[in-house]
Design goal:
- By secondary structure, this protein is α/β, with parallel strands linked by helices.
- It has 2 domains: 1-68 and 77-119 and 192-292 and 389-409 and 470-556, FAD/NAD(P)-binding domain, CATH 3.50.50; 147-181 and 295-384 and 411-463, Cholesterol Oxidase, domain 2 (2-Layer Sandwich).
- The protein has helices spanning 11-20, 40-43, 84-87, 97-105, 113-124, 151-162, 194-202, 254-264, 270-276, 315-328, 414-431, 434-437, 453-463, 513-528, 531-534, 542-551; strands spanning 2-7, 28-31, 125-127, 141-143, 178-181, 186-187, 190-191, 208-211, 214-222, 225-233, 240-251, 267-268, 282-283, 289-291, 295-303, 340-344, 355-360, 377-384, 391-394, 405-407, 440-445, 465-466, 496-498.
- The strands form 6 sheets. Strands 1, 2, 8, 9, 10, 11 and 23 form a 7-stranded mixed sheet that branches. Strands 5, 15, 16, 17, 18, 21 and 22 form a 7-stranded antiparallel sheet that branches.
- Strand 6 (186-187) and strand 7 (190-191) form a beta hairpin.
- Helix 5 packs across helix 14 (513-528).
Length: 556
């Protein structure tokens, strides 16, 4: 018997479990389908390259559709405590104020940037360099500058400036535009996932129970109220256990897992549920709809010398790098690989940046991106930040262990393809600048044959992939397609909330890990009835700082 049952031990679930158990009276159970975060590659930052296609993911692939040449694109979703924060590239970006103000204008009252979002972004942050109206210190999430920056990344930053971008030392400050080195979710040279930053200290509390390797089959609904969940340890449905939630069931299983669980529980479009063999319990047409993701396109260059992280693939170099990390806590092992980046405009008429770039001093890091012949290369990827296409997540069957049908609808809207192509063009322009030219032997991928608009479009369709940022499938709002209200309560079902990336009505103009943690932070206060008090003090003034200090106990 628990007060709160949280389904999904990803970033949002870990943060919520930690915040809710600050009150000793709250009995909280956190359920995660995957294992604990004990794999050593999780905690070594450079281990990211082994994570996105490894055993700590669900192994999903997208539906084969015409727009991406009938490819089934690998679609990494974490299956481990800490979720995406345990396997991602640790890039710390939060989006533009206009993203959140747009949410509020569309009916998500209380989610505007200045008063509804920024206080939580500051509360959760422990920034080693920045403390101002945009950044906080002392929070559970370690945010750091990279300890060791590769020389190619520094050259990329210079090249971006040569291409006309201003230098930006803080993509999360007053201006997002420009080029620079990303801050990362690390602390002392190690990954700081939500499992590390939030949950590790909280697990010592007697009112928190964490269960891993535990598959949730459905939410139990009685008389219009969520009263608990059914679970199968290690997916063994021969031994189904029912766990009761006295106060609420909170679903934090991500943009794929959360709508899947609601649909398995009979919540969704009635006709779709019946086709999958699920008995409808509550009609909610928007469940699983509104899927958005960033469509990422890589270009790869072969280098004329061993400048990149690729040289550490050799065993003796790998050993030296490991010793440097062990003895001095620096060197290539501290790299998140996606070290540098930029935010820029696809067109001068666009009011805020709508393209994002990631520079990787290495090649062949992503699945489907070929390594260079010499074994020494670098990669620049780009994506359109605000896609107009909308996809879906639907059930393949009523079997809880069956993978859902994922259709991200990449570049289905022609405008998305147009801006994606501009991202490739601008990537090539940056890579052609003098600062990088002296390192480059040749453009390996796509190569000189891609020149015309048709060539660019075909290349995007053939090689574009997920940006690992799915959102929107349990949309927050007040319209007919919304799934949760602005307090994250599922429309029409008592005692049930969703609090993760799936509630974003529109994708943010950045990576999504930090915004997801913000949603969990705000959800904790909505549950505890503190959200109104948090928004009364403007971040940066004395009253706002006092409110933040009270809301951020030293224990975390």
């Amino acid at each position: 018997m628990y007060d709160y049952v949280i389904v999904g031990g990803g970033p949002a679930g870990c943060a919520l479990a930690a915040r809710l158990t600050e009150a000793a009276a709250n009995r909280v159970l956190l359920l995660e389908a995957g294992p604990a975060d004990t794999d050593p590659y999780i905690h070594m930052p450079v281990g990211f390259f082994k994570m996105t296609g490894g055993p700590l993911t669900w192994g999903y692939r997208t539906q084969a559709v015409t727009e991406t040449q009938r490819r089934q694109i690998p679609f990494a979703q974490a299956r481990v405590l800490g979720g995406g924060g345990s396997i991602n590239a640790m890039v710390y970006t939060r989006g533009q104020p206009e993203d959140y103000d747009g949410w509020e204008r569309d009916g998500c009252t209380g989610w505007g940037f200045r008063d509804g979002v920024l206080p939580y972004l500051r509360r959760m942050e422990d920034n080693e360099r920045l403390c101002n109206e945009y950044h906080g210190v002392g929070g559970p999430l370690g945010v750091s500058d990279l300890i060791t920056v590769n020389e190619l990344t520094k050259a990329f930053v210079r090249a971006g400036q040569e291409a006309g971008m201003p230098y930006n030392g803080d993509f999360n400050g007053a201006q997002q535009e420009g080029v620079g080195v990303y801050q990362v979710t690390q602390r002392n040279g190690k990954r700081c996932s939500a499992a590390v930053g939030y949950l590790r200290a909280a697990q010592a509390r007697p009112n928190l129970t964490v269960r891993t390797d535990c598959h949730v089959l459905r939410v139990v609904i009685e008389n219009g109220r969520a009263v608990g969940v059914e679970i199968a340890a290690r997916g063994n449905r021969a031994h189904v256990e029912r766990v009761r939630a006295e106060a609420e069931v909170i679903v934090t299983a991500g943009a794929i897992g959360s709508p899947k669980l609601l649909m398995l529980s009979g919540i969704g479009d009635a006709k779709s549920l019946e086709r999958a063999g699920v008995k409808p319990v509550h009609a909610l047409e928007g469940v699983g709809q509104n899927l958005q993701d960033h469509f990422d396109i890589d270009i790869v260059y072969e280098l004329n010398g061993p400048y990149s992280l690729d040289k550490y693939a050799k065993k003796h170099m790998m050993l030296l790098a490991g010793l440097e990390y062990k003895l001095f806590n620096k060197g290539p092992v501290t790299s998140n690989i996606a070290e540098g980046g930029a935010f820029w405009y696809s067109d001068p008429s666009v009011p805020t940046p709508d393209l994002q770039f990631h520079f990787l001093p290495g090649a062949g890091v992503e699945a489907g991106v070929p390594p260079v012949p010499s074994g020494s290369g670098c990669t620049l990827n780009s994506y359109f930040l605000r896609p107009r296409s909308r996809g879906s997540v639907t059930l393949h069957s009523a079997d809880p262990l069956d993978a859902p049908v994922i259709d991200p609808a990449y570049i289905r809207d022609p405008y998305d393809l147009k801006v994606a192509v501009e991202g490739i063009r601008q990537s090539r322009e940056i890579m052609s600048q003098p600062a990088l030219r002296k390192y480059i032997k040749a453009e390996h991928f796509p190569g000189s044959s891609v020149r015309t608009q048709a060539d660019y479009e075909a290349y995007a369709q053939q090689y574009g992939r997920t940006g690992y940022h799915p959102v929107g499938t349990c949309k927050m709002g007040v319209d007919a397609m919304s799934v949760v209200d602005p307090k994250l309560r599922v429309h029409g079902i008592d005692g049930l909330r969703v609090a993760d990336s799936s509630v974003m009505p529109r994708i943010v103009s950045s990576n999504t890990n930090a915004p997801t943690l913000m949603i969990a932070e705000k959800a904790a206060d909505l549950i505890r009835g503190r959200a109104t008090a948090m928004s009364t003090g403007r971040s940066g003034d004395i009253a706002g700082q006092a409110a933040l200090a009270v809301a951020s106990p030293a224990v975390l």
